[in-house]
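batch_manifest entry 22 of 60
target: Macro domain-containing protein
source organism: Octopus vulgaris
requested by: lab member K.T.
priority: normal
notes from requester: please return tokens only, no post-processing; we will run our own comparison against the previous entry in this batch. if the run fails, retry once and flag.
--- input ---
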Amino acid sequence: MALRFDLVSGPSEAVEAASYEAIFARRGLRCCKFSAARDCAEHTASSKASLPGSQQEPSSVVHRTNVASGENAGIKINLMIDSISNVSVDVIVNSSNEELQLDSGAVSKSILNAACLEIQDECNQKYPRGISTSEIAITKGYCLKCKNVFHLALPEWDENSSDSILANLTQIMTICLEEAERMGAKSLAFPILGAEMKYPIEKLPRTMYEAVKNYSDQKSSQIKDVYFVVLPEEDTEIVKKFREYLLKTEKFHSKDTASSKASLPGSQQEPSSVVHRTNVASGENAGIKINLMIDSISNVSVDVIVNSSNEELQLDSGAVSKSILNAACLEIQDECNQKYPRGISTSEIAITKGYCLKCKNVFHLALRSWDKNSSDSILANLTQIMTICLEEAERMGAKSLAFPILGAEMKYPIEKLPRTMYEAVKNYSDQKSSQIKDVCFVVLPEEDTEIVKKFREYLLKTEKFHSKDTASPNPSLPGPQQKAAPMTPRTNVASGENAGIEINLMTDSISNASVDVIINSTNKILQLNDGSISKFILNAAGPQIQDECSQKYPQGISTSEIAITKGYNLECKNVFHLALPPWDENSSDLILANLTQIITTCLENAERMGAKSLAFPIIGSGVLKYPIEKLPRTMYEAVKSYSNLNSSQIKVVNFVVFPPDKEIAKITKYGCHADDNSSDQFSYSFSHSYCHTDITKHRCEGTRQ
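--- output ---
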């Protein structure tokens, strides 16, 4: 069996690069170095940043080996230095004890602390008698970055029974692999089994490696990645022994590790549907941006989430509070009970940790009941409590907050809430130079659409805004050797020479576009061979692009997120992959708002990465059945709004129609300019060409009246 072995150098390994290169030379192998800025082209196919985590950048993946021959075959084994509780995989394996008391042992403790106490409760309920050393206990992953945890208990080391003990270790690893396979898992993380129980360090690398190799040899497995995870505080001798063993097994080449995820306001977030944004202070990049978002607030990734609760801080009451309790784990209720046993008044906030939420802290508040006779004082109290939240967030160093629509559950008049909440943030921003950059007003999807309407109407009257939306896969099949076709319509979305972003309508396969970023409309599980646009991009980019999606986003993406990969053989630096919801006439406004949001997310992330040009397919025009007549205006306005709100380094956005889609091209050509409500006058020119051997160009000029 020919094995492939990759050396993945993390931050701590740079010092040893020269010695590895010398080892390569002695073996007659070439050492190809990779950096984030530039990859070695001839090794692109086999050298991929690895870590199957949706948002993870490993502390140090120091080795990788493939245990089956053939390109992309077998299971890749990765040696990682990190806490196993940080690893993002389908299954984390926990080395515990027969009683399944998870607070014993460094590995088990770290898993218990990261997963929340429910994982111990599940062990107690499902396995009241514990497990034997030949069994595993299976629980959910809770707050860990995995779907499941497999708990096992190893026998104590006995030199006189060393062979049977190591055979048991092999057997229990095989049970884990078989069970993971049965459950559809593609990646597992093992701690260094036995290291805490004084198993001889020199015996562990071979035993663990051979267990995976033998499993891989015996069957065609859907499992792609196995991680051997060494705690940073564990003896460096463990790392040394594993490294030495893996160096002896197969060829290797050096790699970089990195992963990227798009984010909107907050540290790592891509919101479900940000339908409006306005900046509450004048001046470029000044003030606090207010975003109107349609989502559960428990999904939002910000520094601080604000919870509208009750004076007793019983978090299981009210839709907003319930969603926060369910997502955060029960410890958030325990902290409320311990720190605020008497509850809070309507002029106070309670502060807890975020636990399993995507935030650092939760601010809990209790509003007064609505009384029409005291409306002014009640709304003044709402303003005051929002100001307290902003001040406390500022004091704690937060840069982003998410508020529910305060009072919506308590029958506060909907028509009064937009102005009250907006003015509270605006007044705070006007009075001081704030480090807070983003405030999200979050509407639950099931809440009355009248709320969204009222907020949208108010924000439209106040400041410039930009809508945001998600998009869907657009089927189109490009010819294998087509050259990029010239543009048809072109318009600049800001007046003035060299101002704004040029929008071009291009007739071609998007895989032929030569830009910094190509947008791919695919599906939530990132299977790029599904959908004609995605297939086309996969075929042109090469299989490495699918590998990177699978490794970096093993759990896929939501319809409000983008996955970012390299461009590989495409004429672009990066590909942004998105997944749109299917069309539903009853939710058309939300779906189109989501489309706007996802386009804006793409633009923001491209901007952050230094890109100057992007190519979008006509998003939603294919199997998702978005009405073609609605797409030109929606896509155009998304770019225009972004350009109006930002001084952008992005210069060109191409909307790319595959040549057979003549109706789409026709509607998009004229639809981009059919804005009867706008008083702006745009001059634009159109040129159209077809992909023949002799490219014929047609150019016409006109001014919209």
